[in-house]
Amino acid sequence: MKPTKSLKKQAEKAEAVAHRSEDTEHAEQMHNLAEAFHAQASALKAEKKKGKAKK
Per the count of CB atoms within 10 A, which of 20, 21, 37, 38 is most buried? Predict the structure, then answer.
């Protein structure tokens, strides 16, 4: 599995846990983790795109 797809899947799982969690602090932490995974996936995609543009 490609790293970008893996990060997106992890973000989806973290969001799902956040929605299921009854503890608001835990839910917020999982939501923040999901945002971080999305940011990493976006950064990898942008880096890959930038590398292709230089070729």
Answer: 37
